[in-house]
Amino acid sequence: MIYTVTFNPAIDYTVELDKISLGETNRSKYSYILPGGKGINVSRVLNNLDIGNIALGFVGGFTGKFVEDYLKAQGLVTDFVYLEEDTRINVKIKTTDETEINASGPNINEKDLEEFYKKLNRLKQGDYLILAGNVQDSLPRDTYSNIQKRCASKGVKTIVDTTREALTLTLENKPFLLKPNLHELESIFDIKIRDKSQAIIYAKKLIEKGAQNIIVSMGGEGALFVSKEKAYFSQAPQGILKNSVGAGDSMVAGFLAKFIESEDSLEAFKYSVAAGSATAFSKDLCTKEEVEELFKKITFKEIF
Ligand SMILES: Nc1ncnc2c1ncn2[C@@H]1O[C@H](COP(=O)(O)OP(=O)(O)OP(=O)(O)O)[C@@H](O)[C@H]1O
Ligand SMILES: O=P(O)(O)OC[C@@]1(O)O[C@H](CO)[C@@H](O)[C@@H]1O
C-alpha cells in the first residue's frame, strides 16, 4: 500500500487577475478553491492514475472538513488526525507570474503526534510512505527522519519532498526518492546553481549521503534524474502553462505509479515529467488521459 503524509494540508485559494498592485484594492477575474498540501496532491494524482493509496496527516476546523470531504467525494481513502485549530488557507495569486502566500498552519501537540504514530503501526514490508511538504515550526526538524526510523525495521520505502534541514536529516535513513526543485537544491547547499552539470554534482552529494534516487525538477525546463550510477535529463514538453501548483507533487505520483508497474526507474522518470507537465497545463491536477498523452512525447538523454 502507498501512504502519503501531509502535516500541513491547506485549502489552496487561487485568484487570477491581470496584475497586482501592492497597497491597493485589487479585484480578481476568477477564483477557485481546491484541497492542497503536497502529500494530498500526491494522493489525488495517484488516485487519478488508478493507484490506491491512503492519505494520512492532520486536519482541523471547517477548512480541514472541506479538505477531507473533497477527497472522500473523489473516492480517496483518508485517515487523518483531527486538530482543534483550522487547517490553513494558502493563497495562490496568478497574474503573468505565480505568487504564493503559504500560511504557517495549526500547531500539532504531542498528543496529536502520538495519535499519528499509532496510525503508522499498520505499515508493513513493501509499503511506500511519502513525506511531503512543510512541517510546522512547532515540531522538531527531525520529525520526518523520526518517522522513517519507526518504519525502517519494516522495510518501508520512503519518498521525501520537503526543504532544507527537514530534508537533509532524512538522508541517513536512505530515502528511496527525493524530489527537490532547483531552488530547493540551491538552498540545501546555500549556493546558486549555474547549469545542469552543477545541479547533478549537488544531487550526487545527496546520493553520497544516502538518497537512492533524486529527481531535480526545473519547472518549464524539465527535470534531471540522478541515481548512484547515472544521470539523465528530460526536457519538459511544450504547452500552455495554466497553473504549476502541484506540478512537483504530480511528478512524485507519476514516478511511483510507473515504477510500481514496471520497476524501471527511467520509464518512471519519463512518466513523472509527463505528469508534472500535464498538471502545469491544467488548472487542477493532471488526469490519467492527460499524462498518457504527454508521455508519448517525453524523451530523455543520458548525461553521464
Ligand atoms: N511551464 C511549464 N511547462 C512545461 N512543464 C512544466 C512547466 N512547469 C512545470 N512543469 C513540469 O512540472 C515539473 C515540476 O515543476 P516544478 O519544478 O515547478 O515543481 P515544484 O517547484 O516542485 O512545484 P510544486 O511545489 O508547485 O509542486 C517540471 O519538471 C516539468 O516537467
Ligand atoms: O507550505 P508547503 O507545505 O511547503 O507547500 C504547500 C503547497 O504550496 O504545496 C502544494 C503544491 O506543491 C500546494 O497544494 C500547497 O499550498
Task: List its salient traits.
304 residues; alpha/beta; UDP-N-acetylmuramoyl-L-alanine:D-glutamate ligase; 2 domains; 10-stranded mixed beta sheet; 4-stranded mixed beta sheet; 10 helices; 14 strands; globular; binds adenosine-5'-triphosphate; binds 1-O-phosphono-beta-D-fructofuranose; 1-PFruKinase; lactose metabolism; Tagatose-6-phosphate kinase; kinase
What do you see in this structure?
This protein is of the alpha/beta class and 304 residues long. The protein folds into two domains: 1-21 and 30-172, 3-Layer(aba) Sandwich (UDP-N-acetylmuramoyl-L-alanine:D-glutamate ligase); 176-304, Ribokinase (UDP-N-acetylmuramoyl-L-alanine:D-glutamate ligase). It has ten helices and 14 strands. The strands form two sheets. Strands 5-4-1-8-9-10-11-12-13-14 form a ten-stranded mixed beta sheet, with helices on both faces. Strands 3-2-6-7 form a four-stranded mixed beta sheet. α1 (38-48) crosses α8 (247-262), α8 runs antiparallel to α9 and α9 (265-280) crosses α10. The longest helix has 16 residues, at 247-262. The protein is globular, with a radius of gyration of 18 Å. 1-O-phosphono-beta-D-fructofuranose binds at residues 8, 10, 12, 36-38, 41, 90, 100, 102, 133-134, 245-246, 248-249. Adenosine-5'-triphosphate is lined by residues 181, 217-220, 222-223, 236, 239, 241, 244-249, 251, 273, 276-277, 280. Pfam families: PfkB. Keywords: ATP-binding, Kinase, Lactose metabolism, Nucleotide-binding, Transferase. GO terms for molecular function: 1-phosphofructokinase activity; ATP binding; tagatose-6-phosphate kinase activity. Residues 7-286 form the Carbohydrate kinase PfkB domain.
